Amino acid sequence: xxxxxxxxxLILLSSHFYLFSQNDHxxxxxxxxxxxxxxSGNWTxxxxxxxxxxxxxxxxxxxxxxxPVYERNDVAxxxxxxxxxxxxxxxxxxxxxxxxxxxxxxIQQYTFLESGYSSRRSxxxxxxxxxxxxxxxxxxxxxxxxIEKPLSGVKVDEREFYLKINNEYxxxxxxxxxxxxxxxxxxxxxxxxxxxxxxxxxxxxxDSFINNKASHNYWLSLSIYLSY
Length: 228
Fold this sequence. Notes:
Blueprint: H1 3-19, E1 25-40, E2 43-57, E3 69-82, E4 87-98, E5 101-115, E6 120-131, E7 138-150, E8 160-174, E9 177-193, E10 196-207, E11 215-227
Parallel strand pairs: 1-11
Antiparallel strand pairs: 1-2, 2-3, 3-4, 4-5, 5-6, 6-7, 7-8, 8-9, 9-10, 10-11
């Protein structure tokens, strides 16, 4: 199956899930801004802002009485080191402002990069620990596979579109209970210059299906990436 057919299949599957999960869903937009700065040599500083606004919800996510509602703002800072073997080690910290509450998260990541003839792939293993005053501490262990492919030619040049697909699995432990979340995120990107690109697509997430009725979350992902 080529990349374009795979992308179409993901959209059809997500639409299928949405039609059969109207009573148990969440839908909104997920804007983000990523800024990368090369500190020196192989060291890079990444600062990311991400917001979340909810427009529609089902029975399982009934904490919002009035919609739409702007749910949260995340500000994360990561410092990474890239080795000569296409491996990246990163550590960072995230602060979340959610419905009047302040939440803290520590982050550790390891990424292995691969380059093919006309695609780029990466495997990311990460762990994070979330702490707040209103909920039990949450511990997550994550694996994400990413493939990026130009929609024309063999590499992504300036003023060209590309396809990127993320598939992530999150193991979650909170309050002595285990849960699993699965994410599928197909996006279309456009590279303006070497230092500026944007990505737009569907961020589909399913969770709570181990011990409870599954919850389907649909986000319109809107991302800007800047490097300098």
